Each structure stands twice: as C-alpha cells, then as structure tokens.
Amino acid sequence: MSEDFYINLIQKRLSGEIDSEETKQLDGWLEADPGHGLLAEQIEQAWELSGHSKQEPDLDLDVDFAQLEAKIADDQSEAKVVPMRRPRYWRGIAIAASVFIIAVCSILFLPRTGIIGKAVVATSTLDRKQVSLADGTIVWLNGDSKLEYSKDFGRENRRVELTGEAFFDVTQNPDQPFEIIMPSGTVTVLGTSFNVRDYANEPDAEVQVKTGRVKFKSNQSEAHLVLNPGEAGVLNKAKNALKMIPNASPNNLAWQSKVLSFTSIPLSEVLELVEGVYGVEILLENEDLADCTITANFSEEEVTRVLYILGRILDMSYKEVNPREYQLTGGRCE
Amino acid sequence: MAEYQAMTDQELLESLRRSDKVAYRTLFDRYYKYLVVTAYNILGDAEQARDLAQDVFLEVWRRRETLQVMSRLKPYLRRAVVNKTLNVIKARRLDFNQPETLEQEESTSNSVQQDLERDELQQMIDQAIASLPERCRLVFTLCRLEGLSHQEIATKLGISTKTIENQMTKAMKVLRAAIVAYRSAGGLLLWWYCWWLG
Description:
CATH class of the largest domain in chain B: Mainly Alpha
Number of domains of chain B: 2
Low-confidence stretches of chain A: 80-90, 109-115
Oligomer: heterodimer
CATH topology of the largest domain in chain B: Rna Polymerase Sigma Factor, Chain: A
CATH topology of the largest domain in chain A: Jelly Rolls
Radius of gyration of chain A: 26 Å
Number of domains of chain A: 3
C-alpha cells in the first residue's frame, strides 16, 4: 500500500471516520517503522493547527444590517400575499373524499351559463387534500395551496393552475400533454409522477421528479429544464435563474410518500422534517442531543414507530404529552 | 437597548413573533458575524459570505411568526448557513475528480516572511490552507472546520466518499509539508517550501 493510503487512514482516524479493520491496518503499519510514526505525528500536528485556522473578514454591522433591511423590503413587495404558515397537519382520507365530492357536486350543480367555469380546490394551512381528475390523474395538495382547472378539463387540453405545493401522479396520454401553470413556472409532462412547489412567500419554485420525464419552464422567459427521475429543478424567481439538482433528496417528497432517509443528519434537522411530514410537534428535552447525527431509513411508518427508533439510536424515550405533541427525554450521543 | 441584550435567544424569538425589530437587530448583532465567518472560511469569498448570512437572517424574518427552534439557536443558524454554502458549491458544478494544480501566488513568500514573528507555525498552516486548490480547500474546510462527516459532504455535494478521501489526503499532504519545512530548520528548507507553495 502507498503512503497516501495510510495518510488517508490517519486523516480518517482524526476525523473519527475510521472503522475497526482500518484501525488494525494503520496500527500494523505504524509499528512496522519508526518513520511511519513520525509521519503520523506530523499529520496530527497539521490537523490540530488547521482547526484553529479561522479567518475573519472586516465587517460593518450597520452597513450589513441596512443591506438586509433592503432585502426584506424587496421581499415584502414581491410577496403580496400574507406570510403563510408552512403546512403541518394531515386531515386524512375523510377530508380528501369530502373535497372530491364537493368538487364533483360543484361541477354537476353549478348553473350552466354558457361560459365554461373553473373548479377550484384549495387547502388551508392545516389541510392536505387528494383530488382525482377526469383523466385518472391524482393530485395530492399540500397545505396553503390552490389547484384550479377548467370544468372541461381533458376535452381539449389537460391544463391545471397551481399555487403552493402538490404531488402529481399523471395518467399516461401521449396525445395530450399535461400542463401545470404556476405563478413563476410551467411544467409539461406526458405521464409521470413528480412534486411541484411554488409558494408566494418562498424565493424558489421547485419541481422534483419521481418517475418519467418532466419539462419545467420559467414563465418569464424560454429558459427550461428537462428533468429525469431523482432530479429536481429549482427556479429562483427574483433572478429568473433555473438550475438542476442531480441527486435531489427523496425527503422532499416525504410529505406525500412518508419515506424518509437520513445519513449522518443532526437530530434537530431530523426532528424538523419528521414534524412537517407527520404534522406533530416534537419537544427535545435534552438540547445537547440536537447536533447528534442520525443514520436511519423509514418507510411509511407511524410517527410513534419513528420516535421509538430514534429513541433506540440515541437512548431516548418518547411520550405523547398532548395530542400531536411528543416529548423525547433522556439520551446520549454515541 | 440594554434590556434586549440581556434577553435569551428564546425570549428574543418570542418578541420577534410580534415583529419586534429591536429583537431582530439584537439577534443580528449576536450571530451575524459568526455566520459570515463560517461561510467565509468555507467559500473564501467575503462578499458571498455576507450575502448568504443575510439570506439566513432574511429567512428568520420571513418565518418569524412560526419559527420554532427546538434547541439552541446558534447551531441552528450555523447549519442554515452551511447548507447555503453547500448549495453554492453545488451550483458551481465543480468536478471534484479533475486534477488541480497548486496556484502560484507571488506575494505569499513575503507575507509569510513578515508574519513569522507572530505564531510562525500557525501562520504556515493558515497559508497552506489558503493555498489549497479550490475543490480541495472546500472539502477540507467542510470536514475540518464545519465538522461534517465524509459521508455528509459526499451526499450534499453529490460526489463519492472516495473522492472526499482523495481530496482530504491531498490536503493533509500539503499541510504536512508545511510542518516538515518548518521543523527541518527554517532557513533554506523554509524558503524552499515557500517557493514550492508559490
């Protein structure tokens, strides 16, 4: 093995990433020659010193705060809508079903004026709704969102308008593309499943693909991306800048799929995501655990099961203190 | 506003919920610099670091009515700014597997010379880190200064852990060379090192 191989192992030991097999290899090598020990010592010293190497730029807090205030002013004039709460709660199948019935009834019983009207399905902060369209497409609508479509949807086109966030499972139809028009971007597909998100109070609009291919185009220009499964497109509304993220986190889809995957993610972030997905509040009694990292996968588990497993990892126990409110107690990092 | 400075982060967040600008400014004074320094040490670009730190505070303002920070605010904000730097790095679409050469900077040896009277070895290391090629430096600072694991950096940047290990090995070799040059008796070898570093 080359010297580089062992330098890598020494570095991994210093950053706490070495495994037991590698430790054995490294120790054997260090014993083999005193020169190896010297090299390890030099690397360790370099590592130690590099931890103190923080550079500080010159700052004028008043100047920077003024810049920040300008950004806030820009932001508020851009988002005319009242600041919205992030969606939190599932209301379950019952609401989804009733919404569907209401939507159907409104189509059937509204007066026919000759002008084709629009069907509107909207959610409040705490709602999630599921909508079935005439072509068999299913739409899961996240909180604070609105879906509009013409009552003759599917006859001449398959076009819907969306603000907020929704997951689409679009029925295949090569003759008639499915179009989603959002405030800042437009998505065109044939048959696929994907998530779109365009909240008025957020700087970016996002499209993340689960299956199939999706075209995501800005409404301000001809700029567009063609996205494949696992890819996401992010449109910065202020700059009209589109960028592609090749390995988008499946956790972005978890509000709909309840599939969560964490690799060395701090507990505080894990809990934030779990709260959003399950619509619960989680209190962490021992704040020292916030930075402990979690590696775990969850697939359509109940929230209590998720908390149980997190508890097993960090030696914590959970209890339900109020409906939809849990507390994690005890615990320690590895 | 002395009474604001005495308030805890949680109390300030509570006031912020009622759009209290003084509470907001107090939090800004408390953590803005920390966020700029964090981003600056990763990216090495002061303008961009300030921009990202301001964006973190912009989000705090946007979400002021609903913001729930379950534990301490400082690591929460740090995490937010680090994530923003990771997005910036990712958007640069760097190919971490491409070979890079050490940059040649004529001024380095002079400034090293001047700083020797302070903390000589620390200065050598600081210079060595600054001299690392961009991708190598990014990986190194994320690992060493931000304490992110190899796996985490790899996942966030969409590259393999093998690439991370290669970059870390490269960084450690450059830093070790600084130590070796310093130890083996300043003088000639030190100059050789400075010359080699650029």
